[in-house]
Amino acid sequence: MTRGFEGADVKAGRLDAEAYQDNFADLHPALSRHEAFVAADRCYFCWDAPCVTACPTSIDIPMFIRQIAADNPDGAAETIFDQNILGGMCARVCPTETLCEQACVRETAEGKPVQIGLLQRYATDHLMATGKQPYTRAADTGKRVAVVGAGPAGLACAHRLAMKGHTVTIFDAKPKAGGLNTYGIAAYKTVDDFAAAEVEYIVSIGGITIETGKALGTDITLEELCTTYSAVFLGMGLGGVNGLGVDGGELPGVEDAVDFIAELRDSTDLSSLPIGRRVVVIGGGMTAVDAAVQSKLLGAEDVTIVYRRGKYRMNASLYEQDLAATKGVRIKHNAKPVKVVDGADGRGVEFEYTHDVDGRLEGTGETFFVPADTVLKAIGQTFLPDLVPGVALDGGRIAVNASFRTNLETVWAGGDCVTGGEDLTVTAVAHGRDAAEAMHSAMMG
Amino acid sequence: MADLRNDFVGIKSPNPFWLASAPPTDKEYNVVRAFKAGWGGVVWKTLGLDPHIVNVNGPRYGAIWGADRRLLGLNNIELITDRPLQTNLDEIKNVKRDWPDRAMIVSLMVPCEEVCWTEILKKVEDTGADGIELNFGCPHGMSERGMGSAVGQVPEYIEMVTRWCKAATRMPVIVKLTPNITDIRYPARAAKAGGADAVSLINTVSSITSVNLDQMAPEPTIDGKGSHGGYCGPAVKPIALNMVAEIARDAETQGLPISGIGGVTTWRDAAEFMALGAGNVQVCTAAMTYGFKIVEEMTTGLNRWMDEKGYDRLDQFTGLATPNVTDWQYLNLDYVTKARINQDLCIQCGRCHVVCEDTSHQAITSSVNGERRFEVIDEECVACNLCVNVCPVDGCITMETLAPGAVDARTGRTVTGDYANWTTHPNNPASAAAE
Question: What mean pLDDT, rounded, does chain B reach?
């Protein structure tokens, strides 16, 4: 619940009902059949296509686009799902401008890549609308596998394991499955409860049970799982958030952007969500942009993202930064928070300009103040290692080998919680899928 | 400004772009719109004897498309005019009276009986039309009744009917040829022998454009059935160009005026037909795809190109390419080229590599020093030009001519700069026998 500073201008229902609907409508409306044909015709069907190399799940993009062009969208979807069973969500949330579409040779040729993301959505939507999935389970192997976390990594892992004939139970701490797809992505990227529909679609293969409201460390333990199941996959993501580490950083007006987004995504009535009149978002990733833009869309008057480094260092792509600017969000680069204040002198955050000194970030001594009713921090999340006693870490996250196996014989891990996770849905899917293949090999000897 | 005025067998028009005998020229209304848009002339849609024929009441056209649904080929099963003869004659007379500077040719198709032709010719002459075109081309419908391509496929009939017409009218006679034959020179020679003033070609190509896989019937489908239709549009242009060139360079028909038809869509297409010997061109599909206004692009484009090249009149470039159409056996085997890929223009799609690797001569790299890079391997390159044609970037891959003295890395032979063709090649048994 976003409350803001005590006594600050924070309230719900800043907009009329229609404005909420418009503001949170699909960011990129789906392609019509005609639009899909026009877009698909632009693909050159490259050899060893750079877009495929750029895709963390290595979807055969030229092939699925050719299938769309040949009026076979369901076949196209199968090509996508073969590599990425969450291809529908990835089509919506992938930063394609830094992945496949950046690599597209038409980006090189004309600065206008083939609309791979939208074409992928066209195909996957088409097949998902039939309710049929192209996969069936292999004969039951008798093996039972536990998956911790019903996010992209866990779902991809579970689906692949189910395909192989294993029986999978997914545990998730939250009341709804989907992980960050359900709770952590801007609403306008995944409208009409797509995350839930996708979970249902994935699980429809059979052999997968999802137990929500089961948190690791509270309701279940890794030790128990290891004794009960033939193999365990850890895909619980990052449970902790970084603190600001500045004076006033713990004031009630300072809240986690991830919580704000989760609440928004969970809401059935956006007009009931309180939002500050002035919002400051601290951070430079997708979460920062998603939080800032949605604050604006909820009716906040002034929304400012402040990031400690320059434009090109932001984890949010240039496209995302432009999107934020288009929605009226101000982005200030090269400034770090000094203190959060809520008193007679003002209410907001004092920042100090930064510059790069031999690769180190240093303050310049010059400061400025941004008034705020709400401060959202989006400065990264952390892995909570206490949940997985005995699991070796590397750099604060779970250490895995090339096949996503941890130091424990029967435990694999993937997604944001492992070292090398890129905080991307598509990367998590690749981890889960590949871990499942490795788990299958290990279990079947 | 170049002079686009055209004189084709004495028929004058302000430019060389005529609308071919087809749906766009079926009525006064359409033709007047065409003349207002700037077309130089029309060949009025084919007239026949009364009672007039009827058309199907289902779809008449089928098509194939390129990227972005660009229409590349159109197929039709429409017959000749389905209006009373007198209605057409009256309208032709009106239009010719109102537009005296435009060419008015009347296409005709009547049974192979002399009286049929002589009678209709008298009526056409009364309209003041500038000439007639004998429709020996249409491959669908009328051919089943012994007309159209059924005549065009029998040189003796072509000659006979042409002769009847020449004897019966003062108007110039243009014989429209069907491409649905094995060698276009025979019908062209027959037309000439019959006294034709000119030939026009090509009429449409017999075709089925597609099959409806739900109905299991060819498109366009009429109540579950389809019939072969006449194919036209950009897709048939290469076939038409070749046939025009064959007639232009044939010893027997050399000099016979040709009205070029087949996929003319831009000024450049027209210039190509005329360079191969056509005295003018006829257009249909482009107008049926984009409307009459496209003639503006054709006239302005041709004009600009002629100015750039220094041609003041059409006849200054007509036929200039004809002498360069030759038989394969006379091509210079000592002419050696190699593909060259401009790395600055290359967008790294890799299609040149994969098609060369999979289907040709393994002459283009996929990587150099571990980097994705497409370079021609001269030792393997036979200069086939496939990479040039599949490259999506215009001008990225070109063919470089090896200068005399250069060594062809593939054969190890030094380029002599001489001319040597198959007729004298040691591998040619005929050349050996001749010695």
Answer: 96
